[in-house]
Write a structure and sequence with these properties.
It is built from 14 helices and 19 strands. The chain has 445 residues and is an alpha/beta fold.
């Protein structure tokens, strides 16, 4: 099958890179690997987001799973973290059909073990290399059932985690025409907000993440500022992350959301060792702020699965990414945009401070991120190209301890990501553009 799994499951253009046949093979192999040690008929959960190809891949996965002798429980349209949570309650493994923040023509498959955790590299490798020669016949073939109570049980789970009093707050939610379109109204309407407005919550299969959600926040900013709202919250397509807008229209990224939540969890006694986890992409300002607050910062590789691994290794309960994935391990092993929103809204409601006030003391160093499309032929050699390494080395030497450079290949898209950070914006821009130019030249050779 080749190397299918990236940093967040399998992803590609539906029916081109990720076909129904490939989904069938993944479902069949994963069912065998994830349920091989069980002494009962396995049950595997499947959820999906709202993009057009999700039905096709859901059915292909179900066919592959049942061909391996496991039963399938279909949850329908739900956020990714809902599948992680409900898998832990009701199944032996779980799949989420979603390409997260990518445009509608992409899709993906995320896989969870029986504890609701994303799979390790070793398990993914085992699934990829499995060649199934013996398949069940007759009565041993699996069945497919619908879980009609999934939405209600997931909403109940979130409300049991945190039920802030929102009676003084005016809130806008941007559902990205994705999975949150199914859950957000039911969840947040239960919290008695003074005024709740929900936008981009009419999915049609092709409008997911289309100029909306956490990757396109202009319409949310405009809605918040024009309507005089206290806060705007934007989810991505599968609602496993969120970003925010304060009452002035300023975007609040995952670093600052994580900082506010870490402080509140420390006050509640749920921040072991005074430590939270984030990634190498986190702004230097977050590290400076953590030190000033007497908090410890543990760094992980990019990807919420690596954040989770670092949390498990150190016994930490809070971790997240600049992109808006935040994990509260005492509740769930998955990043959950709606749970994060509840935690953040709770901090605002309980302190009486605005989001702008809560985040004002968290410095943000100038940071520039440039994405360069790279071909599959050159992708693996880009970072070793002499011109690229020379550009990176020169920037690092000039920035010294006052900045940093991070150049990496995306695990989900054909991109090379160049990130430069420092105290002076003009230096950051110059070095980022210089490195990006050297990467682009490798595509012309």
């Amino acid at each position: 099958m080749g190397r299918l799994f990236g940093t967040d499951g399998v992803r590609g253009i539906a029916n081109q890179d990720l076909t129904a046949q490939k989904a069938f093979m993944i479902g069949q192999a994963a069912a065998i690997v994830l349920t091989g040690a069980l002494h009962h008929k396995p049950v595997i959960y499947i959820g999906k987001d709202t993009r057009l190809s999700s039905d096709m891949l859901e059915m292909a996965l179900a066919a592959g799973i049942t061909s391996a002798g496991a039963d399938v429980l279909l949850a329908g349209f739900l956020p990714t973290p809902a599948i992680a949570t409900l898998t832990r309650e009701r199944a032996d493994a779980g799949f989420m059909v979603s390409a997260s923040h990518n445009p509608y023509e992409y899709n993906g498959i995320k896989t969870f073990n029986r504890d609701g955790y994303k799979l390790s590299d070793a398990l993914e490798d085992e699934i990829e290399t499995l060649i199934q020669t013996k398949i069940p016949l007759g009565k041993d073939i699996g069945r497919v059932r619908q879980d009609k109570s999934a939405l209600e049980r997931y909403t109940d789970f979130l409300l049991a985690c945190n039920t802030p009093d929102l009676s003084r707050l005016r809130i806008v939610l941007d559902c990205a025409n994705g999975a949150a379109s199914v859950t957000a109204k039911k969840l947040f309407s239960a919290l008695n907000a003074k005024d709740l407005r929900i936008i981009h919550n009419v999915p049609n299969g092709v409008n997911i993440n289309d100029r909306c959600g956490s990757t396109h926040m202009d319409s949310l900013r405009e809605t918040v500022t024009d309507g005089g709202y206290d806060i705007g919250i934007a989810f991505d397509g599968d609602a496993d992350r969120c970003l925010c807008v304060d009452h002035t229209g300023k975007i609040i990224d995952g670093d600052r959301i994580l900082a506010v939540c870490a402080m509140r969890e420390r006050e509640r006694g749920y921040l072991p060792h005074g430590t939270f986890v984030s990634t190498v992409m986190s702004n230097l300002g977050l590290r400076v702020w953590a030190k000033e607050q007497g908090l410890h910062f543990a760094s992980a590789a990019v990807g919420d699965r690596y954040v989770l691994e670092e949390m498990q290794k150190g016994g930490f309960l809070v971790g997240g990414e600049q992109s808006g994935h935040v994990i509260f391990l005492r509740h769930s092993a998955a990043g959950d945009g709606q749970l994060t929103a509840l935690k953040l809204l709770s901090a605002i409601a309980e302190t009486g401070k605005s989001l702008a006030d809560l985040t004002s003391g968290i410095p943000q160093y100038p940071q520039m991120l440039v994405n360069i499309v790279v071909s599959s032929d050159t992708k693996n050699s880009v970072l070793s190209d002499p011109a690229v390494t020379e550009a990176i080395g020169g920037a690092e030497e000039s920035l010294g301890e006052d900045g940093r450079v991070l150049v990496r290949l995306s695990g989900t898209e054909p991109l090379c990501r160049v990130m430069v950070e420092g105290k002076k914006e003009e230096d950051v821009k110059r070095f980022a553009e210089n490195i990006a130019a050297s990467v682009r030249k490798t595509q012309k050779k």
